[in-house]
Structures are given as structure tokens and as C-alpha cells.
Design goal:
By secondary structure, the protein is of the alpha+beta class. The chain contains 22 helices and 39 strands. A hairpin with a 5-residue loop joins β23 and β24.
Length: 1015
Amino acid sequence: MASPAPSPLLGRLATVWRCLSLRSDVDDIMLELLGRFSLEKIYANPSDRGAHQRLVISLLVKLNALFYLQRLTIPANNVHVGRYLGFLVSWEVALRTVEFILQVMAEGRDSLWDNLALRDKYLAECVLCALRILTLHPKPPTDLRESERRERFARVHRSLEQMCDSYPGPKSFLLEACKEVTNQLHTNPNALELPPKLKYELPNLAMDLVCLYPLPDVLSPAYISQLVPRDDLTSGWLSQFLSLRDIAHYLLGASVQCVANGNTHDPQLQASCEGSRNAILYALDNLRLPSHLSRVEMLSTFGAILRINLPSTPELSHSDASYLSDDEYELDALDTFVRRLAERQVIHRVSDRELMHTISQVVGNIHLHDGPGGQYSTGRPGLYALNCPECHLAGDSQLRLSEIKIPADLAGRSEIRLPMPSRCLHCGEAINIIREVPFVRQTWDLLTSLETNVDAVNAERHLPMQFELKPPKSEVGGLFKEGFGGSSNPGARQANFVTPEPFSSDQYLSTSQALSPLSPDPNHSRGSFGTDPWRADSAIYLGSKASNSAQDGAYASNALNTSAAPPITTSYSPDFRRPSELRSEPSQVFTPPPRTVQLATPEKGKSKWKLKFGNANKAPVGTSGDTSSLSESTLDAQKTEAISLEALLNSQKSYGGRSKVPKSIKVSLSQNSTLALFWGQLVIQVWDIGSSPPSIIRAVSTESNCILAAVSGKYLAYIIGTRDQRLTLRILDLSQPSTPIVEYRMLSSPWCKTIAIDPSENYVVVGFEQSMIRFFKTTDTEQPREDRLHDTYHSDCRSCPSVETLSFSNEGLVLLASTRSARSGLIQVYCWRFPFVACQELLSCRYPVPLHESEDNGVSSAVFRSGMNLGADLVCVTTWTQSGTPVLIQPQAGHKSEIRTDTTGRHSKLGNRIQCAAFSSSGRELAMVNDKGHLYGITNLDSTAINIRRIANSKELIAKSDSFAMSFMKIADEDNVVIAWVDPAKATGWIKKIGNVSQVSAGLLPSLQLPLSSC
């Protein structure tokens, strides 16, 4: 029979230990925890008890993990304390932390009193562990006399008694033990020292980070049985209790260190710990407790500790102590703590600019030797000595570019024999052997993990995702609700503290809503669909078609009479962000002449003016397919908003008089605002779809064939083709119409394929054929930076695939580009991180999709979600193909999950033909639209069982279309999925918004256990 698995808390503690081992900033870490909690508490809402309770539990769990590992780091009395002082929390910080958390409990009594686990488990464990450190600390303040130490402990004792008196009901064993400890310490600070043998022979987890096996004699059953003799009549039960508790913690620490060192299971250590555990339980049975304390509850507290690493420990708790079991609040808090520790370590590292500069120079020099002309390689660089007369050196990438074959795995060999004839790259002499210089690769392996993108780290600190509690919405008159952070009337707060409200058993509130251990946000539930993140908003039709047509006709006439003049834009209002003012008649605004930069491009190419507008595959209007998962009431609630596009179609008809290009209208949605583009070849309309009904902001004449367009909150960027076989990128400032247009001119070869605007609005990024990316600044006309994705593999990219997609992460710190090979169908994903100066292929995201000419529309999206405050980074790749199932990939770990609504058959309702996909701003939801026009919402992204449901219908598609777009938008401070599409037959654009309520419930699909496989 298989032995039960250890608690998940064991792995969490091992990870915390790895992050904290031998660190000298424990004081700062503790102060940062308290400071962050104080800032979180400012916005704690009195009406939301659950949020405040989770906030306090999170603080107590993190502090308890710190104090627990600190206890195991205190050296024995016969060990010189000097080398350990850097790893220990200072006595003063530890004591003030105890006083702080007791004050928090007293001030928050009105919202914390009903949570038994908070005070009886988390608070008691944290305080008791901290008091043990204060008792045994080897270096208390030198200027603190014994009488002053007694006074400090007396202060803690008074605070603890007042806190206990203010909370109703009986107190737990651990809380009573805390009171007993403070009572003795304020009488004699040295009353609870360790027994002599333990004092001088206890091990230390900081000793060379070796596993505590074989167990020392002081942790053996023979010694443990001596701590509490069977016929002991002394009254020193508290010292015996604390000593046994220390030993239980050290047994857990041995397993923690074993797991931290990579040994998931050690049978000998397990058997040794079980023997010591049995001795502890026998000793506890002999302990002479005071009459007011429960022996069963005492045993249950030890059982909770021992079951973490010894799951065979019997359940000794009674019904009232069920809170002692592990719950997801604790796991969530430790996951968040580990991420914060890792971020803090990175910040400390990059703060030493001289060290980071030195590391960057060493790594950079290795790269320079590895590749010719400073071209960095994507793999591990290497350096080889050639057996020419001069013994020249050549890098790994340099040799591969010269077609010298180097095995991927040398299997420990440093010498490689070459076929004849082979020549030295430098002198041209014949060579037949190359030998690797191993220290170069070894140095790179050691230093590259320490090299950090300083600019990305600095930018992440300024993102709005650092805190769990959000500011409350303002009340009438601009005032906010009072939170728990402090009261304007200290007297009233003191009155609440002294006079507790009457207590009854029916006042307990349920706290069973568990958090997902993979998400630190308390608002993210792991329940299947208890809290639905999707909502359908009803909408209103935008006026009459006649009125809209008349208005848009005015735009068309203005836009089409601009052949000899500078571009003319029409606008309802210069302040485009105020829809309430967008009801006046449009007025013509003169646009200043553009600032132009001419791009130096050496190649000439063929004409590409037959654009995609002539696609004869018109998607039918309406909805089809299976709608049984949506109720009729839900479908009725999901009404769409219509906008008239007569002006755009009139411009297309006018253009069609001069050529035979059919009419077509394309759609684009902003990533950082509520703006949308509807555009044809000659006119672009900018709409604010955040208002209801949507309102037009501006109509822009393009003067020539518009090929690509994108919009952000501030800028409109579009690319036009001119008769001189050139492309022109124009960037307009929508917020300031008087600002000159920024203009870039370039040759039409390579051809442009996709465009995106940085959410921070510093760059417009364009993807071209031949795997080329160009970064254009939005504010000036300096020469754009150009990146060739395949430079590290070969110098000639004329046969390389086009860039199919470009997308920024929601916070704007990561840019993804994707390509797909026309020969093999292999999808490759490339990543830039802020400030976007270096490109790297995400090798784990390579995705081979077979080619099917009849149904193949390539990659439809490659989007990135940052793992900050959530878990791991995620990349979602979707295609419009027969066999390219949508996938979620963790770039660091290489895990890949297929997104399917039916894992039993070959095909699923979601399908493989995906029009588009997008992550929400929080990163907790993913939305995608398939060929049936069905919108699917996907949650629990960090779990192996993700939730997939169909939440809305739209327009059925027969091919991937530029006339259909979907994105998340913030509307009224709430994430909404916005779908926009065009019906050319009716000259109408359609907008559908799906928000965040639980009414879309009929489309619920079961949770799917998705298999994980390495890429």
C-alpha cells in the first residue's frame, strides 16, 4: 500500500527556505511585510470582512514562516555567534513585530472576531514562534538591562491579555500558552531557556546547508523520552512543552532541508523522524498540564506540525480544532511570499550597478567571441581552438555559420574531428580538429542566471498590481468610506476595543470560500464557477440609419476631396475622451504638415497594391452553430449596438469607380482604451465604444490605399501605399489635433504584414516579410530600429517567413512576434522585454502545425500574460488551421496545455479555427472566438483543470477576417470583452460587450483535466 503524500505545505516551506537561506536582509524583509500590510489596510472596507481577514492571515502566515526558519537558524551556545548574526532577525524588530500584530488584532476586532482560525491558529502560531526567538536570541540589545527586558515583555503580556479579553468565546490552547509564556518572561526573561543538552547540541539549518541526517542525538527517541519523565512532579510543564515543540520543528526542518536539496523522499530520514515523533507523543502524554488547559487540543497542535512531513501521524484533533488543518489561504500567502522574495533579491542585485555592469561585460564579451559581428546566439555560447598554425579561436555560432557541424551534445568530449577539407576562418589554413575551451561555457552558465534586465525590473515596480486591495469608489460628495487603516475619532476606536459587542454562536460567518493556491489574489476563487467572471451587458441601437448615414456622408465628402491638399481630419471635439461633449456637428480641423523621415532601404520589390480588400470569401451575416449551451434569456440579454458605416462604404464605392477592388471594411480595437477603428482604403473612422451608444471621435482621410491601422488611447497609426512603390507610416496624436503628424517613408519590399502600438505609447511596431521587425517612435522621426529575427541563424533572410502576429502584454513590458514556416508549418515565437532592445526566441513555444492549403490561414494570435502576482508567465498560441489546437505554454518550465472543450474525441466545439484571443487586464481570464463566432471564456489558467465555457455568440466566419476583432476593455472600471464586426451588406458595424456577472450560466462546461507535456 502506497504511503500517503506529505502536505503541500512542506514544498512551500522548502521554497521559502531556498529563498531565505543565508540572506542578511531579514530585518528589511520583515519591515517590508509590515509596511506593505499598512498600505494595504488603508483601503480595507469595513463591509468586506472576508478581505480584511484574508489580509491579516496572509501577513501572519508570512511572518510565521520567517520566525520558524529563524528559530532553526539560532546557533547552539557552544558555537561562535558572529557568523550567524547576519542571518538572524534583530531582537528589537522581532519584539516590535509582535506588538504590531497584537495592535492590528485589537484595532480590527469588529471584522476579525468571527474567524477562529485567524486568532486560534495563525495568530497564536506566529506569536508563540516569535516569543521563542526573543527568549533564545543570542544577541539582545546590549543597552537593554534585564529590568527593561521584563518591562518590554510585560507590555506584550498586557496587549495579549487585552486582545484576548476583547474577543468572545473560549481561547485555544496555543493562545493560552502564549499568555503563559509572556507571564513568565515579564517575571524572568531567562525563565524558559533550553535544557542543557539541547542548549549545546541543537543543530543549525545554516550549517553548510547539509541535510540533518543522520539525526543528532538530541533529536533521537532516547533523549526525547528523558525530557518528560513519567513520574515528574515538577511544575516546569511550559519549558518541557516548548522544548518538545522545538524538537518537532527541527524534525520538520530536516525534511524541509532534504526537499530544498532536491531529495523528494528519503526513507531512512522518514523512518528516523517517525521514531522521534512517537517519542514526542509519548512525552506529551506524560506532561503535567494545568487543569484549565486541554491535553487533546495540545496534542492536536503537535499533530498539525508533524503531519506536514509525516502524513501517517494520526488525527488527534477534536471537532472544534478543524481550523488546524492546512487551507489554501496559507498556501496562497506562501506562494506570494516566495515571489516577493525573488523580486526583492533581483532588485538588490540590480541595485549594485557596478556588479551588474561587470557581469554584463563578461557575458557580453563571451557573446562577442561566440558570434561574428556581435550577433548574439540564442543557445549556450562556446569558444573553440582551431589546430591551425596560429591556433586561432572561433565561437560556436561563428563555426555553425561557416557550415562546420558541431554535435549538439558533446557527451563530455572537448575534441571534435572535422572532415577534410576544412579551413580556418581567420587564416584559411587547413584544419582537422577543434577543441572547446570549457571555462568559457562554464563562466557563461554561472553568470547568465545573475544577469537581469534592469529596466524591466524598474518598470515592473511602477505597475498598478502591487497590492491586493483596491481603492474604494468615492461616495456622493467625493468622500470615501472609512477603512480599517485608522479612525478619525481615536476615542471611538478605543471604545470599540474596550466594550466588545455581545456574542452568540449564530454570529459566526462562513469562511469556507477557499482561494486557489496558484493565485495570490483573494478575489480569485478556485471554485469551478461559483463566482462567474463574465457578464452580458444589454445595449441600445445607435440612432436611426438615415441620420447616421447623413452624418457619415459629410465625412466621406470631406475625406475624398483631398488629393492636392494636406490630410484633413474631422472631429467632433478636440477632447476626444469626453463622450458627453461629442454631440455637436463635425467641424473641419486643419492638420499641420507631417514631419517625414525617409528610410534607407537598399532593396526594391514588386508591386503589392492588390490588397486583401478584394477577398471574395464574404462571411455570412448572423449566428449559426450549436447554441444549446446558452439560454434564451441570456441570448436576449446580449444585445448588440449598431453603428452606421455608410460613409466608409461610399468612399469604397467611389474608389471602386476607378478600379475593380470590391468594397471591404476592416476593424481594429485599442488595447489600452475604449477606442475602435473602422476603416476602408481611403477613410478611417475612430469610435469611442465605451459609451452607449458608441460615438465617433474622428474621421481621417488616408489619401491613398490604407494597408494596416492600429489605435491606442492617444495615437492613431496607419500605413498607406503610394504610386511610387513606397510605404508610408503616419502617426497622429488624437488628443492634440494641432500636433504635426509623424511620418516615416520606406520601400515596399519587404511588405508590411502586421502592426501594434505599445500600451505605453512610446513605439509603433510593424512586422514585415523576411522575419523583420521595425520599432518607430511616436514622438519624433528618428531612424527606426530594425530587428531581424533569424540573424542568429543565417545572414540571408529573403526566404524567411513573414511576421504573422505582433502583440504587447497588457502592462506593456513584453512584446511577442510569431512566424510560421511555409515549408514545415513550424510556429516560432519571439520575445522582447522592456526596453525592447534585445530579441530572444522562446524555444519552449515552438509549435509544429501541419500545412493544409485549403483551410490554412496561419497563426491568428500569440499573446503573453505576465506571471507577476499570479504564477508563471503564460503564452497562448492560436491558429486558423485544421490541426493547430489552441495551446497555453509556460515559457520557463516548457509545459504545454491544449485548450479543448472535448478531450474524448478528435474534434471539439471550440475547434482549431480561432479568429483571435486575448488575456484580460488581470491576467486571470482568457477569451477567444472561433469560426462559428462563439466567444469562449477560459479561467483557472494556472491550474491543470482549466474552466472553459461559451459565453456569447457573434458572426460566423468562413475564413480568418480583418473585419472582425475582439479584445478586453476597461469600461466603467470593469473588464469587458468587446467584439466588433462589420456587415457590409447593411453598411453597419456591430459592437457586443460582455462584462463580469454570473448571469451567463447556461453555457457552463465541465472542468477539464488538461494533460501537461514538455515542449
